[in-house]
Amino acid sequence: MLSRLMSGSDRTLDREFNCTVRLLDDSEYTCTVQRDAKGQWLFEQVCHHLNLLEKDYFGIRFVDPDKQRHWLEFSKPITKQMRSQPPYTMCLRVKFYPPDPAALKEEITRYLVFLQIKRDLYHGRLLCKSSDAATLAAFILQAEIGDYDPGKHPEGYSSKFQFFPKHSERLERRIAEIHKSELTGQSPETSEMNFLRKAQSLETYGVDPHPCKDVSGNAAFLAFTPFGFVVLQGNRRIHFLKWNEVTKLKFEGKTFHIYATHQEDQKIILTYFAPTPEACKHLWKCGVENQAFYQFEKSSQVRTVSSSNLFFKGSRFRYSGKVAKEVMEQSAKIRREPPEIHRAGMVPSRSCPSITHGPRQSSVPRTRRRAVHISIMEGLESLRDSGHSTPLRSVSNGNSFLRSHGNGAEGGSGTAEFSEDSYSPSDSVLPTPVSNDPSYQAQVRHTNGPRSMQEEGGTELCTQNQARPQAVKPKGKRSNLEKTRPTQHGPEEGVNEFICSLARLFLVTLALLFALLLLLIVLTESELDLAFLRDIRRTPEFQQFHYEYFCPLRRWLACKLRWMGGNLINK
Which stretches does UniProt call biased (Polar residues) (predicted)? Predict the structure, then answer.
């Protein structure tokens, strides 16, 4: 009896496992999950725990054993997406940034987006000038500690918070000045709303950078925002393509292609190289989902897309959720009492030290702090035009390359360059890991050497890389990337792909016809008594085929089988 009870409990444990989801305020939600449960079930449980209705902007992210990030697919079982054994640890994050976060219907949703953007600011994903940085940090202070109180907030109180990857004493003083003089009387809700409005006006709002390399071997960061596709190189935004300009996203192995139509039907192709094939596929899926979410009017317009132009080759993927317009329409129908919000306040945070009481650990040595705060406060007052760009391959002009100076991929307004000392994507915890190949890491190493950071409480470990243009190498030396880079062709490349596709289709059609013919022969020569088979057997053509070809072939095969059987018996 005891053994039966123990075996029954073991079977129950095999059918269930524990899953922990780390929320945006760094608290944790743990639940027991059935082994066949899909991602949608877990997401619904988390949203119910948060009392969240505007949930389509959010997603659950996890990291596989190879340190590659993934978004949990809601239509698939959880266990089939994991490459490790339970229990699992995941993170709730903003997957699709609202185009206008201040226009969200409920305060609970705005608060969660506020936590996400505050996290982006700390990890360097939200680039900004020092004046904007001071304003954003002051809004965070006002939301978390309220009005300035000389009795509670002594001189230098803002230094106990770290809002950015790097900041100087002068910037701290400016944050405190704004908090003291300009924000008095603002409630946490108002401060969070003002923070969202300010963040939404920045060019890197919603950026989740993916590290790649361009065709010249220079490090770059690709990102998808509510407004389009962005490429950051160095501290500059060198390309911006609106979603209605992007015609196709494609990947093959580590190579990622962006096809777009820009400025008077000019067709362009951007080509980048991801660290690993898995990172490239993740980049492609993120692009497909973001384009579908922000571009289409209805989810019924979303179609399954293929990663390749060839038949029977590549990955196929379809975004299955609601689109932005449907989400906003559904939010407008919400009628309920606003749910109570439990703000984190001064609770210590594992991944965002901006709300800890400990002293600020500056990433800049004291000997350099004076020079850094001068450059941050005085060198970042405006954005400069970019003098560096990734080459664009023109479809209409063969193998010619275009460089976007002034009127590049920015829609005629000129490419925006961030000052060299502004907050860089290199300080971000990136969504995809950089290859462990020493030759690859050597190509993206920045002046201060490689660094690493562990985000999301230890589960989302990724490598930081400085996205600065590389120095020109001598002609006699070629990097490993240049040796393995596929040769870029003109329009003939598309012709070759089309011919290969036709040949593949022809061969597959012949194979299918041959298989159908064999199946038909087997059916007609069988004992099955069906009407359409009787009609076929009575035709003169079948009678001729049966007596002149099939019967001799059957006798020959039977003779060979008897001969082989006899030899085996004699042995």
Answer: 351-365, 388-402, 421-451
Beta strands in 15-131 (DSSP E): 16-22, 28-34, 58-63, 69-71, 88-94
Task: Give CA–CA dist 223/139, Å, rounded.
Answer: 26
User: Which whole-number Å values give the CA distances from 462 to 81, 97, 123, 221, 466, in the listed order?
Assistant: 20, 22, 12, 14, 13
CA 494 – CA 489 distance, rounded (Å): 9
CA 372 – CA 362 distance, rounded (Å): 11
Residues 6+ apart with CB under 8 A from 510: none
Alpha helix ranges (H) inside 85-187: 107-122, 130-145, 169-181
Q: Backbone phi, then psi, for 502, in 5-degree steps?
A: -65, -40
Distance CA 318, CA 435 (A): 28
Q: Which residue from 199, 256, 178 is spatially nearest to 223, judged by alpha carbons?
A: 256
Secondary structure element (H or E) that encloses residue 509, with its range: helix 491-525
293/405: higher pLDDT:
293
Counted residue by residue, the chain has a size of 571
Mean pLDDT estimate for the chain? 75
- Check residue 279 and give its pLDDT: 95
For residue 447, the 8-state DSSP code is T
- Asked whether the predicted pLDDT for residue 106 surpasses 90, the reply is yes
Distance in angstroms (rounded) separating the CA atoms of residues 346 and 352: 12
